[in-house]
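Sharing a chain and its predicted structure for anyone who wants a worked example. Both blocks are below, sequence first, C-alpha cells second.
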Amino acid sequence: MEQSILKTKSLIISLIQFLVVLGIIILAQIIFKNQFITGTIINTLLISSVVFLGLRQSLGIAIIPSLFSVVTGLMAPVLLPFVPFIILGNIILILTFNYFKDKNFLFGGILGSFLKFGFLFLLSSQLFAFLPAPILYAMSYPQLITALSGTFLSFILLKIFKK
C-alpha cells in the first residue's frame, strides 16, 4: 500500500511539473509578442523539460504550445501551414538533446538547435517560398538564435538547480 501511495505522489508531482512548464510556455506566448523572447523561453523549457520531466513529457511540451497558439488565435493565420513543421522542429531539438544530454549537454543542445533550424529553414525556403519574406524570415535565422539561446539559458538554469 505504501508503494502505491509513493507512486501516486510521484505521478502527481510529475503532472504538476508538466503543467507548470506548459503554463509558463503558454503565458510567454500571451505576454511576449517578440519571437526572440518567446522562442528563447520555449526552447529553454523544451530542453530543460527533457532533464526535469523526461522524454515522453517533453514530447507533449513540444506539441501542445503550437496547438494552443492555433486554437486561441495567437498564431497569425498565415503561419498555420507551418504548425506541423514547428512541432517536428521542436521534436528534433528534444530528441537530439535527449540522445546527447548525458554525454555532452551543450553539444546535444547546439546540434539540436542547428538541426531544428536546418529543418525549418530548408522546408520554408523550398515548400513555402511563395509566402511573404517576413514569414519566411521567421522560420529561418530567428529559429537558430532562439534555439541556441534556449540551450545556453537551460544550461545555466540547470547548473543553478543542481546546486
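Comments welcome. The domain at 2-162 is CATH 1.10.1760 (Arp2/3 complex 21 kDa subunit ARPC3).
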